[in-house]
Amino acid sequence: MIYILLLFALIAGMALPTQFSINAQLRTLVGSPILASTISFIVGSIALLIISFFNHGIKVSKGWIEAPWWVWTGGLLGAFYVVATIVLIPRIGAASTVAFILTGQIIASVLIDHFGLLGVHVQPINLFKLIGVSLIIIGVYFVQKYK
User: Fold this and answer.
1) What sections of the protein cross the membrane (predicted)?
2) What is the pLDDT of residue 145?
């Protein structure tokens, strides 16, 4: 099962630069990164609503109301992320955009794990994680320097 999940993660990662590039082209078509992001989210939201409806249905529960405020901010962060990629792809290219985003993701992920932020199980930083983060930063340097 773990190999299926790892393959799923790899495919999801491959989908991101594809999505970034498609959304950058949409921006060219509609003339605005905000409008392109809005259209992208509307299409994605419709797809997810249809899947949710047929998969489990949508049932509002008391837990929704009692949830901490920050659980509702994922969409805002997603919107920021999509707009950022639409702005960055035409200016710095797909490889540099993904490289810097990956670096930000790995740094934030290690800190979230280490401190157990946002309800994530604590997984302390160790030497091997620091080496991995360092190698990613070195890789980003090479991707950016030798475009």
Assistant:
1) 34-57, 69-92, 98-120, 127-144
2) 82
Q: Characterize 101-122 residue by residue with b for buried, 16 or more Cβ atoms within 10 angstroms of its Cβ, and e for exposed.
A: bbbeebeeebeebeeeeeeeee
In the chain, domain spans: 2-145
What are 77's two structure tokens?
Answer: 């962060």
Token pair, residue 39, equals 């259209």
| % pLDDT > 90, the chain | 72
| H-type alpha helices, 31-126 | 33-55, 62-66, 74-92, 94-115
Q: How many Cα atoms are found within 13 Å in the side-chain-facing hemisphere of 113? A: 12
pLDDT of residue 16: 87
Which of 47, 44, 67, 66 is closest to 55 using CA atoms?
47
- The whole-number pLDDT of residue 34 equals 95
Contact 27, 19 (CB under 8 A): no
